[in-house]
């Protein structure tokens, strides 16, 4: 099925939730309000004609001062059964949670954790929302546009010396060059 037809079906099923439908270079994206993301995800997954059974990717975008709300969560969906695709862009304000879609796609577990870790976007109902890339004691969210490019000012991460020591040990034993 053509992505534009899928977008039209989504728009008629969840009329009040669709903000815009965008087409660019053969890709269709549907911008949605965040309030109904879980029922929308379930509908896209469970409707036999659509059968979006694979969450290809979930990522965050920080628009800082360019857009309000500031963040978007982007879901790239694919149907292995029908071999069609759609992109969902869900607008999220700073410090406002969005529902987790882990109950629909298990792979969202790691994607949502990464999005939380890098942008600080909170996924309500997530089974284990904690950092996945940065150390647990890290301060801030490195992909936010207001994050200092040199890292936290005047501070050195507490595990930095430990990482340097391990790096030297690896070199000593020839584990990497």
Could you give a short description of this structure?
This protein is of the alpha/beta class. It has helices at residues 3-13, 37-46, 108-119, 160-172, and strands at residues 18-24, 27-32, 54-62, 71-78, 85-92, 98-99, 123-124. Helix content is 26%, strand content 24%.
Describe the overall structure.
- By secondary structure, the chain is α/β, with parallel strands linked by helices.
- The protein has a single domain, classed as NADH:ubiquinone oxidoreductase Nqo5 subunit (Beta Polymerase, domain 2, 2-Layer Sandwich), CATH 3.30.460.
- Helices cover 26% and strands 24% of the residues.
- The protein is built from four helices and seven strands; from the N terminus they run αββαββββαβα.
- It has helices spanning 3-13, 37-46, 108-119, 160-172, and strands at 18-24, 27-32, 54-62, 71-78, 85-92, 98-99, 123-124.
- It has a five-stranded mixed beta sheet, with helices on one face. It has a two-stranded parallel ribbon with strand order 6-7.
- Strand 4 (71-78) and strand 5 form a beta hairpin.
- The radius of gyration is 19 Å and the shape is elongated.
- The termini are far apart.
